[in-house]
C-alpha cells in the first residue's frame, strides 16, 4: 500500500452524513441515506469491539452499481455482511429516492433509477422532443415501457404497456 492510500479516508466518522454526501451527492432517501446508515452502524459496532474504524478509499456509482472501496477488508464478519447487504439493497433501489428500481441505460450512462427520477434525469440530459429515453437492453419485453424504454416498472392497467411516468405525461 502506498503512503497516499494509507492516509486516504473519505468517511469522516464524526460527520458521516456530510462525507458520504460529498461522494454520492445529497440523496437522503436514496443511496447517500442508505450508505450513511451503513457507516453509522459500522461506527457503533467498531466502538463496541474497540477496533479501528475502517478506512474508505472511495464510494461511487459504476455502471449503475454502488461501489465502496475499503483500504482493507474489515476483520469483523458482521461488518462485512452489512457492507454486502447495503450494496445489494442499493443496487435495487433508486439512487435518488430509494424506490424499487433497476439499472437504466441512458445512452452513455447507466444509472439505477425509478421511472419518476429516471424521467427527470433524462429530461435534463436530452432535448425536449426525445421520448425514447432509454436504450434497449436484453430485458424481457413485458418489462420495457413501449414509449420511453424504461425497464422494470410498467403500469399494469395500461393497455399500451407504458411506465407510470409516460402514462402521466400522456405519451
Ligand atoms: Zn426515484
Ligand atoms: Zn415510459
Describe this structure in words.
With 171 residues, the chain is of the alpha+beta class. It folds into two domains: 3-90, no CATH class; 102-169, no CATH class. It has six helices and four strands; from the N terminus they run H-H-H-E-E-H-E-E-H-H. The chain has helices spanning 3-7, 16-24, 31-49, 77-90, 115-125, 164-169, and strands at residues 56-62, 65-70, 102-106, 109-113. The longest helix is centred in the first third of the chain and has 19 residues, at 31-49. The N and C termini lie far apart (54 Å). One zinc ion binds next to helix 5.
Judged by helices, strands and strand pairing, the structural class is alpha+beta
The coarse overall form would be elongated
Round the mean pLDDT to the nearest integer and report it.
94
Helix content: 25-40%
Short précis:
By secondary structure, this protein is an alpha+beta fold.
Tags for this model:
single chain, 171 residues, alpha+beta, 2 domains, two-stranded antiparallel sheet, 6 helices, 13% strand, elongated, binds zinc ion
Secondary structure: elements and pairs:
Elements: H1 3-7, H2 16-24, H3 31-49, E1 56-62, E2 65-70, H4 77-90, E3 102-106, E4 109-113, H5 115-125, H6 164-169
Antiparallel strand pairs: 1-2, 3-4
Residues 145, 147-148, 150, 162-163, 165-166 line the site of one zinc ion (ZN).
